[in-house]
Amino acid sequence: MLTKRIIPCLDVRYGRVVKGVNFQNLSDIASPVDLARHYSSSGADELVFYDITASAEGRKLFSDILTETAANVFIPLTVGGGINTTEDFERVLNCGADKVSVNSGAIRRPELIREASRLYGSQCVVLSVDIKRVGGVFRVFSKGGREDTGMEAMEWIRRGADLGAGEIVVNSIDTDGVKNGFDIEMLQAVCDTVPELPVIASGGAGSIEDFIALFRQVPRIDAGLAASVFHSGQIPIDVLKRHLREDGVNVRIQEAFE
Amino acid sequence: MITIVDYGVGNLFSLGCSLKKVGAPCRISPDPELIASSEGLILPGVGAFGDAADKLRDTGLGESVREYAASGRPLLGICLGMQLLFEDSWEFGHHTGLGLIPGSVRSLAERTQGLKIPHMGWNRLDITRGGGILGSLRGENYMYFVHSFYADCPDEYVTSYTEYGFPVTASVQKDNVYGCQFHPEKSSESGLRILAEFCDIVRKGEL
Asked: Is the ipTM of this structure higher than 0.95?
């Protein structure tokens, strides 16, 4: 059976990883390539690169970094940030990305999902959704979680799936940064909404126990994504995976080849 | 020299990089003469079987691959490239493959009983026949899969399965023709070992 995936997310600005990275053994802790290599060798199942630059030169640097990573790290790479057109898909796929994540670009123009899935296949199109409770309702936020779109989240996710999205990343704004556990209730609602698609949980990971709780309480969740707990070294991925396996969660543990 | 057959299906960047990583010189080319003069050949592929089979036929590259395989030199099909090695496929209609290994390509959904399709992610390899491209794997090995169809073929050609509602063909071999459903170029250390092993087989053939 498919294993549950553990996915570190790297925010990249001007070719450097932002958010406190704290690894003693890396010579350049802000180098996306070194960090990606480190994560791959400690058992990460996939990497997400998030481009948080807006300028053309920043974008060029990001493309270079992505190409260099893909040439050195042999696990699936997902790229997000600033994806608004199928040309943006083309650009990052040519640099070695395997999947492309859309968020605000798809909110502005939902047809992007259909166009991209027709051109590159659904398995390549990831719909990333930032969700926050407003008056007891799950609402979609855009622009990095700053703007309330007024859309009901489950309706948007269902629509995204029908347009051709092949995977959903759920980022709970309510639990993000709090490090008090994933948003179990929200994630369960998404799994019920799109039972046919892989769903990735994001926002709230603070401890190994949080990941165990995630996979136990929402058995249909496919992956857990986090940034700072991995970057800070607080949760080493190999240690996390050993704990998950001891707790009966099916995870990939990379055989140590000499 | 290993040639990766470029017939306009999918991005070959990662595959090229992974071969470089295991120390094998390779070229990515649609040139029938380069294919004919290669010591090792890799047939990649993503997307729909019908489109890929049409491209192989229309460009004449299908015939080049068949002629190459008949010479006894090593050939490796990856993902859709593996499926194309079989006789036919029932993906959106009925399509004819290269016919290098007996068997048909069928829909996973018919047998996976409600599991998510595509079968996408890391899954464990259950090796039934070691050696060949699996020769240097030890212990548990997980591979990265992305597919909605599978090869239904006689057990004698299957070298490993992976469990997804039923034992799904993960890798195959018939004489000098090898195939893997998963993406070795995306399967970390275990995947690189498989590519290195294939390159080794190619090198031994050169001696």
From this structure: no
Q: Chain B partners of A166 at a C-beta cutoff of 8 Å?
A: 118, 120
Separation of alpha carbons A208 and A2, rounded Å: 21
For B104-132, the pLDDT digits (tens) are 999 999 999 889 999 999 999 999 999 99
Say whether A197 and B185 touch across the interface (CB within 8 A). no
Paired tokens of B121: 């992610």
Q: Domain A5-246: give its CATH superfamily.
A: Aldolase class I (3.20.20.70)
Give the containing element (helix H, strand E) for B169. strand B167-174
Instruction: Judge whether A244 and A205 are in contact, CB under 8 Å.
Output: no
> B131, B150, B63: which is closest to B98 by C-alpha?
B63
User: What is the C-alpha separation between A224 and A222, in angstroms, rounded?
Assistant: 7
| C-alpha to C-alpha distance for B194 and B180, rounded to whole angstroms | 10
Distance from C-alpha of A122 to C-alpha of B91, rounded to nearest angstrom: 16
Nearest CA among A3, A46, A1, A39 for reference residue A245 = A3
Q: In terms of CA atoms, which chain A residue is nearest residue B191?
A: A74
CB contact, 8 Å: A254 with chain B?
yes
Task: Please tell me which residue in B26, B79, B180, B199 is annotated as part of the active site.
Answer: B79
- Residue ranges covered by each domain of chain B: 2-206
Q: Would an 8 Å CB–CB cutoff place A167 in contact with chain B?
A: yes
Q: In chain A, where do the E strands start and end?
A: 5-13, 16-18, 47-51, 77-80, 99-102, 125-134, 137-142, 147-152, 167-172, 199-202, 223-226
Classify domain B2-206 at the CATH superfamily level.
Class I glutamine amidotransferase (GATase) domain (3.40.50.880)
Residue B117: its pLDDT value, please?
A: 92
Nearest CA in chain A to B9: A120
Active site residue A64: no
Q: What does the pLDDT look like over A221-243, one tens digit per residue?
A: 999 999 989 988 899 999 999 99
Whether residue B122 and residue A255 make contact (CB cut-off 8 A), yes or no, is no
Which residues in B lie closer than 8 A to residue A224 (C-beta atoms)?
none
- Dihedral of CA atoms A253, A170, A66, B45 in degrees, nearest 10, equals 70
Question: Given CB atoms, is A66 within the 8 Å cutoff of chain B?
Answer: no
